[in-house]
Amino acid sequence: MSEQHLLHEVDGNVAIIRINRPKVLNALSLPLMKDLATMMKQYDSDDNIHVILLSGSERAWAAGADIGDMATASSDEMRKRNQFAIWEQIKAIKKPIVAAVSGFALGGGCELMMHCDIIIASENALFGQPEINLGIIPGAGGTQRFTRAVGKATAMDVVLSGRFLSAKEALSYGLISRIVPKEHWFESALEVAAQVATKGPIALRAAKASILNSQELPLSQALSEERALFYELFSTNDQTEGMTAFAEKRKPNFTGT
Questions:
Q1: Reduced to 3 DSSP states, what percent helix, strand and coil does the chain have, rounded to the nearest 5?
Q2: Does residue 106 surpass a pLDDT of 80?
């Protein structure tokens, strides 16, 4: 990478990725997004990693896209750039992604957050899709995932006015999973990621896939896919181990097989 706009480490079975552009409130540049997609795909294919934890800084998860990347671009240039193909790569990550969110999660930052599966937010976090202030609209799911999370009325209010949601509002609308004290925003998210990482890796991927299906498929088809995943898990060693451990009143030793 040309700059350390991403920091990463491994803690047990959890891969930790931190967005690191403090001077611009972690604005999401195109090079950063490309590197993030590449890094997440690498961890997704690593059998030793069960969960990915994606974090910003205390001041900002990500305050939006890097406007400098787009300010002078034409419509044709933006189409040719096809920057949202990178976002599709992140959407395709099979392992659970936990978001550790503090401070600003705005615009592209909010959209990136909504690509995560469990969102742990500091009590001081702020959320929004203020692209309307720039004469544009969200382009990485901000009118779609946001609406599915909070409902049409709130989405219209937030997207058309450009206002921000507090952490309490975001939790009440279903945009985030949990609120934690601002002093412990990262540690709390890491605890959640570590807890999830103790579960069977195959079952985790199946559960994530099935829940995502509920957002995109008709109910009858989503139920059919759920049953297929349920039955497939009975061909795994993890299912045998999980049920045997339950009967023997001990913790299971999942191997991801």
A1: 50, 15, 30
A2: yes
Q: In the CATH scheme, what architecture does the domain 201-247 have?
A: Orthogonal Bundle (1.10)
226 in Cβ contact with 211 (< 8 Å)? no
Please name the residue that has the structure tokens 């709390």: 188
DSSP state of 146: H
6-11 and 14-19 beta bridge pairing: antiparallel
Q: Which of 89, 87, 91, 110 is nearest to 99 (CA)?
A: 110
pTM reported for the whole predicted model: 0.95
CATH class of 6-197: alpha beta
- Identify the DSSP state of 226: H
Q: Which residues are catalytic?
A: 65, 108, 111, 131
Residues 213 and 82: their CA atoms lie apart, in Å, by 25
Residue 87 CB-density burial (10 A; 0-12 exposed, 13-18 middle, 19+ buried)? buried
Mean pLDDT within 229-239:
98
